[in-house]
Every structure is written in C-alpha cells, then in structure tokens.
Prior knowledge:
Helix content is 42%, strand content 0%. It is elongated. It is an all-alpha fold and 135 residues long.
Amino acid sequence: MLAEKDNFTIVRTARLLEVSRSGYYAWTGREASPAELRRVHIEQKVSFLHGDSDEVYGSPRILADLRADGETVSRKTVAKVMRSLGLVGICPKKWKTTTIIDHEDAYPVDAVKRQWDTGALNQVWVGDITYLRTS
Length: 135
C-alpha cells in the first residue's frame, strides 16, 4: 500500500486489498517485534559470512561460524535464510574415475602377427575405425 500511495488513495487501496484502514495505520506505526529483529540480525550475519568466504560457504560452514560467534540458531534456519537471500555455497563434486586401466590390455592382441599378405584372398582382413566417434 505504501508503494502505491502516490497512485491511489489509502482508502481505495485498503478496499481493494480487503483490509481496514485502521489496521493498516496500526501496522505502519508498530515497532518491529523481537523475532523480526532477530531474523534481520541473522540475515545480516549470514550475508556477511557468505560474502566473507568469497561466496563459497554453504549452510553447514556458516552455521559453524554463527555458533562460534555465540549465536544459537538451527541448521534449518540458516538454510532457510540463505535460500530466501538467494545465497548458494559451492560444493565441488568428488573425483570419479571413469576409466579402469589394464596395462596388459593397453594394445589389442596381434592375431595375424604382422603378416598381412598370406598369399590367398579373404584370409586376413584389417581395418581402422579410429575415425568413428564412440562414447
């Protein structure tokens, strides 16, 4: 309502949003609750710690830093705050070996023992398929 105050009257905005004018004015004059103040404080600390780590730390490390600073906060709260602020830690993937090297099987067996010409037709067939893409 406050953002649209220049375009519409408070009376019209309150009627469209189906809230009372007195409730709106009570809400604008109300002080922040202790829970809201704590939430803002935690958001500021999480944002600072994430930026201080070059935007690498995720919720587990930020939780450890918060607890080292004396804050009493849960893991889920830190994760929720980071999600609401759009902060994401970097989690490098573990190295996964995809090729199993067998040194005995490094080269295929030479079945013709380098004798390409046996003197007869269709006795030895040789081909090269290295130009074909395989996965």
